[in-house]
Amino acid sequence: MESEHAPRIPELSAHLIEAGGKRLRPVLTLAAAKLCGYEGDHQIRLAAAVEFIHTATLLHDDVVDESAKRRGRPTANILFGNQQSVLVGDYLFARSFQLMVETGSIRVLDILAGASAVIAEGEVLQLTAQHDLAGGEARYFQVIRGKTAALFAAAAEVGGVVAAATEAEISALRNYGDALGIAFQLVDDRLDYGGAAAAMGKNVGDDFRDGKATLPVLIAHQEGGPEERDFWSRVIEDHDQSDGDLEEAHRLLGAHRALDRTTERAAEWGERAIAALDIFADSEMKRALTDIVGFVTARAR
Amino acid sequence: MESEHAPRIPELSAHLIEAGGKRLRPVLTLAAAKLCGYEGDHQIRLAAAVEFIHTATLLHDDVVDESAKRRGRPTANILFGNQQSVLVGDYLFARSFQLMVETGSIRVLDILAGASAVIAEGEVLQLTAQHDLAGGEARYFQVIRGKTAALFAAAAEVGGVVAAATEAEISALRNYGDALGIAFQLVDDRLDYGGAAAAMGKNVGDDFRDGKATLPVLIAHQEGGPEERDFWSRVIEDHDQSDGDLEEAHRLLGAHRALDRTTERAAEWGERAIAALDIFADSEMKRALTDIVGFVTARAR
């Protein structure tokens, strides 16, 4: 985070990074490397690189979404302005590649450059498709694979790569991260409609107000009769909302058990993540990676 | 520029890339590689990577500066919105690293990741220091080295690296690019006060209206009496401007030959760029790189 010439860079980065957050992605890198018996120290640079990429995307997302709150505090774009958020995000992104270069592994750079491209692609896709109900679950999963699961998958995978694990192990770690990332985003999208979210510093109802076609909405829309579909079409596709619409949305989500079913789907993806680890013998790190799945899916209960 | 899932990406990228521009930076990579006798094809990927980094920074700059016009056309942020500009910039930046990975050269990744970090640092520094007259020329050169010369230097340097040139040749190419980049920015900052700028699609007077302490202003401030310094302090440092101030600025710039002297400084840096090439024997590519210096500095006349 340091910068010799621009002291605003560590100041702004620290605002976001020191606010906490779960540090899930870098933990995946560290745990995956240790699981595969790695005894060097390159995994530390990679874990930092992964967290920098994540932080850069948060800085840019908050500009894109015009968010006012993140992790229970005012966002950097509110405190420092959009300009600083865009440029400091760029700086952290470039620094993350410098950290990867220090490991000397082209394969690591390939994986994380690829993930970065997929993340940006997923965000652009979300921007153009977020109000679209017709794309259904296929489109939804395409978006969350890009914007969330890609970095989880890459974070776990590079832990295996730096440890020179077997191709089967590296592939298992990638599948673990992918499934965990999907479970994580499903839980996030469910919590946006209430639950333990207040404790996370999230603004409940943001996705509804933004007219985002997340999985709970897609389930209720899919299962609803013509009148219900008209409602969803108005509030999501046309993004035409008025007082009482959020309450009506909650009533329809409840009628179709859409929030519970989203939680169930998250649990299924959590099971897939755990199953991906079957290839590894029991160990402290395998139990840690399994526990992370429980931590992620339990947030929804 | 392609994207399977997000067609908006090639659309927005093409808006900027097909608008033309001088393609100076990728030409440096291609010419440097050929100058050093390279016969492979990796220089093409690197030239594209360099232009992608440049395009990504333009997209983000236009968001940061709230620009309305670039290369004579409406900017992408005006046509497509800030959100798309931020995210498509991120995408091009990630794609540029994928192109570098294809060359298999960690050194190339090191050079261009380093340049990317320096560019972002220079932009952040410019944002916090742009109205500051006290920093003087030292601060000014620090900013333009970061925001402009770093990518020119890296573009030329990676051409030598991919050609497996000697360290002396690689260093010469880097020095050439650095000096050329500084000359280029000096000319740009001079043209912002008029001249051939109309033909470039630039908005004359933008730097003054933004209160930027560019070299012409620093020269006039440095040489002016107390009243003149008060004027510059008000319009640049306090960014408090009213009708007639731009005319007054032009009068003071003229009185101290500040625009001509900026042009002369650019010519000096151009000479340094040409001198850096002394290590190379005469060849078609050496003459091409020399001609580029003439092209860049002649814009100011």
From TrEMBL, chains A, B:
Per the UniProt entry, the signal peptide is none
Which processes are annotated in GO (biological process)? isoprenoid biosynthetic process
PROSITE patterns (UniProt xref): POLYPRENYL_SYNTHASE_1
Q: Does the keyword Metal-binding apply?
A: yes
What's the top EC group for this one?
transferase
Cofactor list: Mg(2+)
EC annotation? 2.5.1.90
Q: Which GO terms describe its molecular function?
A: all-trans-octaprenyl-diphosphate synthase activity; metal ion binding
Q: Which UniProt keywords apply?
A: Magnesium, Metal-binding, Transferase
Q: Give the CDD domains listed for this entry.
A: Trans_IPPS_HT (cd00685)
Q: Catalysed reaction(s)? A: 5 isopentenyl diphosphate + (2E,6E)-farnesyl diphosphate = all-trans-octaprenyl diphosphate + 5 diphosphate
Q: Name one Pfam family in it.
A: polyprenyl_synt
What role does this protein play?
Answer: Supplies octaprenyl diphosphate, the precursor for the side chain of the isoprenoid quinones ubiquinone and menaquinone.
Q: Which family does it belong to?
A: Belongs to the FPP/GGPP synthase family.
Q: Which PANTHER family match?
A: ALL TRANS-POLYPRENYL-DIPHOSPHATE SYNTHASE PDSS1, GERANYLGERANYL PYROPHOSPHATE SYNTHASE
Q: What is this protein called?
A: Octaprenyl diphosphate synthase
